Amino acid sequence: MNPFPPRITISSLLNPVKSYQCGCGREFRRKGNYTMHLAAVHIKEKLLGCPTCQRPFFRRKDLNRHQASVHTDEAPYMCGCGKAFKRNDSLTKHQRACYYATSVIGSDVIILLG
Questions:
Q1: Rounded to an integer, what distance in angstroms lies between the CA atom of residue 81 and that of residue 95?
Q2: What is the C-alpha separation between 71 and 74, in angstroms, rounded?
């Protein structure tokens, strides 16, 4: 059971009914979100291409993540055991299983034993 109540926004108060329904069953309050869903999921429209490998992406954040993790040798996310990762989500997944995993938050060091 979620201890936090659902987030109430001005948008949800002004438009409480989801008014844009897709044929796949998804509903959207905003036309822009519905349009983006159609283009990305059903039309498979890819607007951005990677300049290095030409792999297509719909969202700029996906293209940026791809470029940082595939086309660079940087691995800025470091575990306390010494392993380095190109992406934060890869580090987080590793830390769940790593006995020596540490995470630095501000100036505090927390040791995760898992």
A1: 9
A2: 9
| Burial track 48-68 (b if 16+ CB lie within 10 A, e otherwise) | eeeeeeeeebbeeebbebbbe
List the domain boundaries for the chain. 46-73, 77-111
**98's tokens:** 């790593």
Cβ atoms of 72 and 86 within 8 Å: the answer is yes
Question: What does the alpha-carbon distance between residue 112 and residue 80 come to, in Å, rounded to a whole number?
Answer: 10
Q: Which DSSP category does 112 fall into?
A: -
Q: Which two tokens stand for residue 2?
A: 């979620």
Cα torsion angle, 109, 82, 65, 88, sign:
negative
Residue pLDDT, tens place only, 6-48? 666 676 666 566 688 888 888 888 888 888 888 878 877 667 8
- For tokens 């349009």, the residue is 35
